[in-house]
Amino acid sequence: MSQDIDYGNLMHTAMRGLIKTVLTGVSETGLPGAHHFFITFDTREDGVDIADWLRDRYPEEMTIVMQHWFENLEVGENGFAITLNFGDAPEPLYIPYTAIKTFVDPSVEFGLRFEGPEDDDTEEDFVEETIEVEEPEVHHDADVVSLDSFRK
Fold it and tell me: How far apart are CA 62 and CA 101, in angstroms?
């Protein structure tokens, strides 16, 4: 048995669970108030299901916006399915939670960033941290929580 608590993996699980919980609420009742999401994901991750033309256009990373129009949001144990409008053409997508790189709700200046070993100089597991979000028309200070202190 390991002598260390794997805080990075525990945070990884908790933050992806938070996203699942938020998306489940949206699938049941819609987006409340001014809430909307920018979700950036790795298009190369196993399980990502997007149209070939989208994969060609975004071979590594893609950001989707859940705001005014989306449908068929189905939240599952390992990821979520959604249909979004691309140039007046609805396209279904499936995004595993493990593919998500950032999850941002600019309406409340909340954001999560999932960093992997390729994102810094260490070779540890994924570590999440809250990121600051700014919108041009709104200038509030956001509380930023850095999880760097939990890294080995």
Answer: 10
